[in-house]
Amino acid sequence: MQRTLIILKPDTIQRRLIGRVIQRFEDKGLIVAGMKLMRIARELAERHYAPHKSKPFYPGLIEYITSGPVVVMVLAGDRSIDIARMLMGKTFGYEAAPGTIRGDFGASRSYNLVHGSDSPESAETEIALYFSPDELLDYVPDASRWVFVPNDV
Ligand code: IDP
Ligand code: MG
């Protein structure tokens, strides 16, 4: 099954939305393969967001993501990267569709509640930044056979 890295950013924790945001991923059928509460060190944030280093919002982004505790998760499931990005919605809360996490809870450019990997390559890189292999559990809940279909053509 495909894995993706999800971060519930500091605004999600400060606004006490952890449960409601995780609920959306669980409702869709994605499987929690790893999860931890942590404070992201500046050096780790800089490695994670290295692709954005030249952007004008980069300093603010590093401040934001290191400003308080986050919940970091690995979610598993067929097409989990695309599914998670759909549930998250567009980057800016004021553009994200209602029904998405950012569309329902976000209103700004900077504070958008969640991070989700955007490709298999970035998922692999990002998961390795936050988790060692032994922190990730490879299991399939019984109910998942009613969610994910083998040879789903
Ligand atoms: P994504 O999170 O939807 O993949 P990216 O373009 O990869 O969006 O940007 C990474 C993060 O940087 C965003 O989630 C957001 O927190 C922040 N960000 C992106 N664009 C802007 C901006 O124009 N102003 C302020 N913050 C931004
Ligand atoms: Mg991105």
Task: Explain the overall architecture.
The chain has a single domain (2-133), classed as Nucleoside diphosphate kinase-like domain (Alpha-Beta Plaits), CATH 3.30.70.141. By secondary structure, it is α+β, with helices and mostly antiparallel strands. A 4-stranded antiparallel β-sheet has the order 2-3-1-4. The longest helix is centred in the first third of the chain and has 11 residues, at 18-28. It has helices at 10-14, 18-28, 42-48, 58-65, 80-88, 101-105, 120-130; strands at 3-8, 31-38, 70-76, 114-116. Helix content is 37%, strand content 16%. Bound molecules: inosine-5'-diphosphate and magnesium ion. Inosine-5'-diphosphate (IDP) binds at residues 52, 57, 61, 91, 109-110, 112, 115, 118. Inosine-5'-diphosphate binds at residues 52, 57, 61, 91, 109-110, 112, 115, 118.
